[in-house]
Design goal:
Elements lengths: L13 E5 L4 H16 L3 E6 L1 H6 L1 H9 L4 E5 L22 H12 L3 H10 L6 E5 L5 H8 L3 E4 L4 H12 L39 H11 L4 E4 L3 H15 L3 E3 L9 H6 L9 H9 L6 E5 L8 H14 L3 E5 L5 H10 L2 H4 L4 E5 L4 H5 L4 E6 L3 H9 L3 E4 L6 H11 L3 E3 L20 H12 L3 H21 L4 H17 L1
Parallel strand pairs: 1-2, 1-4, 2-3, 4-5, 5-6, 6-7, 8-9, 8-11, 9-10, 11-12, 12-13
Helix pairs in contact: 5-6, 7-9, 12-18
The protein binds uridine-5'-diphosphate.
Amino acid sequence: MKGFTHGSQSKKPHFVLVPLLEQGHIIPMTDLAHLLASHGALVTFVTTPLNALRIDAVIQHAKESQLPIQFLPLAFDCAKAGLPEGSENLDMLRHGVQEFAALLELCFSNKDPLISYLREHETPPSCVISDEVQPWTGDVAREFGVPRLSFPGFSAFASLCRDISILHKIYDNVTDEHQPVPLPGFPHPIEVPKNKSLLNFYVPGLEKITEKMKEENSKIDGVIVNTFQEIESLYIDSYEKLTGKKVWAVGPMCLYNKGLKQTVSRGNKASIDEESCVRWLDSMEEGSVLFVNFGSLARCVPLQLMEIALGLEASRKPFIWVIKAGDKMPEIEQWLIKEKFEERVKDRGFIIKGWAPQVMILSHKAVGGFLTHCGWNSIIESICNGVTMLTWPHFGDQFFNEILVVDVLKIGIRIGVERSVVLGSEKSDEVMVKRDDVERKVLELMDEGKEGMERRIRAQKLGEMAKKAMDDGGSSHKNIELLIQVVEERAK
Ligand code: UDP
C-alpha cells in the first residue's frame, strides 16, 4: 500500500483528502480525487473499511485508469466510541445527535495512523483537503508544514449565509422562529427565518466538534467549493472578503464522470438494474419525467411517504420515485403491496427502493424535473443536466440552497416546507406536505406553458455554462490547474 509506483510522478504535489463519512461528502471528494489526479497530482484518499467497500466501483475505476490515487482505509473502532459495529457512515446511525457526535469524535483517532502513513510515504504530502467537520486534520497539515484547505460541501451562497448569520449573531434575540431575519452585508437583500437557518447543526451534544471546527476554520488556507464562477461569483467574492480565505471553485465535479459505468457507480451500488432503468427512461418522452429523491440522509416517515405516493399518482405525470425509509421500510413496502400501488401506476411510475443511480437518471433526456431535498450535490447535479427543481428542504444548508434555486437562479419552485426537521428525530405522525400540494406543485413544475418553459430554458442555459466551466480552458478547469500549481510552488 505504500507510495505510488509512478517514479516520474514523485515530484508531483501530493494531496491528502479526508471527507466527512457521509455519502454527500464522500462522493464529491472522490470526484475531486479523480480531477486532481487527472491533472497530474498524486492523491491519498482517506476512508474506512466499510466506506471503501461502498465505493469499490470508484476505486476500481481509478485503478483501471491508472490514476495515481491511493485509497487508504483506516481502521474504525466503533466499539471504542460506543457505536454499534459497522457505524462507519452517518447514514448507518439511528439515534440522532449523540451517535453523530460519537462518530465525528472517533474520526479524531485517525490522526496518528494517518501521520505515520504519510511519514513513510515516498512523496511527502503537499496539501491536506479535508471536511470542515474533520478539524483534527489541521494538526496533520501542521505536522508536515503544508496548507490545509477545507471542504464544507456547501455552495458559496450557503457558506456565506451561514458565516454572516454567525458573525452578526443575527438569531440571538429572535423569539419568533418563523420571522424572516435580514442577513447584513449579503450582496443583495435576503431574509432567512431562524427555523430555516443552519443553527440546527449547532445543537447540544456537538459542542466539542463545533468548537474545534471554529478554531481550525480560522486557520485554514482556503476553501474548496463544488461550484463554478459563472453561477456564484457574487457569493464567492463576498465570502472571500468576509473571511479573508481564498475560494477555489472547481466544479461541478460530477461532470468528471462520463458514460454509463461512471455515472451509475457513485457512492454506493445501485439497488436496481441500471439497464432496466435506462430502458424505462428511453420509453418516455423528452423532459416528461419527474425524478424524486431526497439524498442519502433525509428520511420521510411512512405517513409522509404515502402522501407523496398519492400526490404523484394524482398528478398523472411519469415519475421515478426513490424510497428510503430506513428501518420503516417494511412498513411502507406493506402499504405499497396492500394498495397495489405499483400496479396502479405501472404505466408511468418507476420505483427504486434504496440507492439510485442519480447522476445517470438526471442526465437522461427524459427527465424534466427533480423533486429534491436540496442537498448541494443534488442541486449542482441537477444544474449540470439542465433539470428544473421542486424544492423540499429538510435540514442543514438545504433551505439556503432552496433560496438560491428558486429566488436567485429561478430554475425551481418551492413545494412549501416551512421549517426544518432534526435529523433522526422525525415525528411519526408528522406530514410536512399533503398529497394535494404534492400533486399541485408537481403539475406546476412539469407544466410546459410559458412560465414552465422559461424555467426550463434558464436551467438548460445553466447546464451549458456548467459544462463549459469544466471543459479545457473553462473557469473550473483553470482553477484546478492553478490550485495544483500554487501547491507545487509552495512545496518548493
Ligand atoms: N445519491 C445517489 N443515489 C441516491 C441518493 C443519493 O447517487 O439514491 C448521491 C447524489 O447523486 C449526491 C449525493 O448522493 O451526489 C447526495 O448528496 P446531497 O448533497 O445531495 O445530499 P445528502 O445526501 O448529503 O443529504
